[in-house]
């Protein structure tokens, strides 16, 4: 399906600009929280590993250790994966716009391609 309507591309460009502004606002407000959570997760992983150096005798303590350690690893991995997912989705938008057919190319597509090539949307 080839979209030839300039107004549609204009709406897509405006929506994209609103989404990037929203990402910037969220990034400015929660980036410190994300970093603190990541550092705390790493700290608790190291504490868990240090506490595993002593011998665990009780079956309940072993179960608790493995479940809590697994949850910490899962939580830390999810922070990394979901944070990187935002950047990957932004790259997909640029790739889709760069692969548009020449018959559908117009000034709005040009503006959006220029905007996505100069702008990066990442959570940091």
From TrEMBL:
<dbReference type="GO" id="GO:0050916">
    <property type="term" value="P:sensory perception of sweet taste"/>
</dbReference>
<protein>
    <submittedName>
        <fullName>Uncharacterized protein</fullName>
    </submittedName>
</protein>
<keyword id="KW-1003">Cell membrane</keyword>
<keyword id="KW-0675">Receptor</keyword>
<dbReference type="GO" id="GO:0008527">
    <property type="term" value="F:taste receptor activity"/>
</dbReference>
<keyword id="KW-1133">Transmembrane helix</keyword>
<dbReference type="GO" id="GO:0005886">
    <property type="term" value="C:plasma membrane"/>
</dbReference>
<dbReference type="InterPro" id="IPR009318">
    <property type="entry name" value="Gustatory_rcpt"/>
</dbReference>
<dbReference type="Pfam" id="PF06151">
    <property type="entry name" value="Trehalose_recp"/>
</dbReference>
<keyword id="KW-0472">Membrane</keyword>
<comment type="similarity">
    <text>Belongs to the insect chemoreceptor superfamily. Gustatory receptor (GR) family. Gr5a subfamily.</text>
</comment>
<keyword id="KW-0812">Transmembrane</keyword>
<feature type="transmembrane region" description="Helical">
    <location>
        <begin position="30"/>
        <end position="51"/>
    </location>
</feature>
<feature type="transmembrane region" description="Helical">
    <location>
        <begin position="63"/>
        <end position="86"/>
    </location>
</feature>
């Amino acid at each position: 399906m080839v979209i030839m309507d300039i107004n549609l591309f204009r709406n897509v460009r405006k929506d994209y600009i609103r989404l990037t502004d929203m990402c910037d606002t969220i990034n400015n407000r929660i980036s410190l929280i994300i970093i603190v959570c990541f550092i705390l997760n790493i700290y608790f992983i190291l504490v868990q590993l240090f506490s595993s150096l002593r011998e665990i005798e009780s079956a309940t303590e072993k179960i608790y250790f493995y479940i809590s350690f697994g949850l910490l690893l899962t939580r830390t991995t999810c922070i990394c994966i979901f944070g990187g997912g935002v950047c990957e989705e932004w790259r997909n938008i640029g790739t889709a716009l760069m692969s548009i057919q020449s018959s559908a190319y117009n000034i709005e597509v040009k503006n959006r391609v220029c905007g996505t090539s100069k702008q990066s949307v990442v959570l940091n």
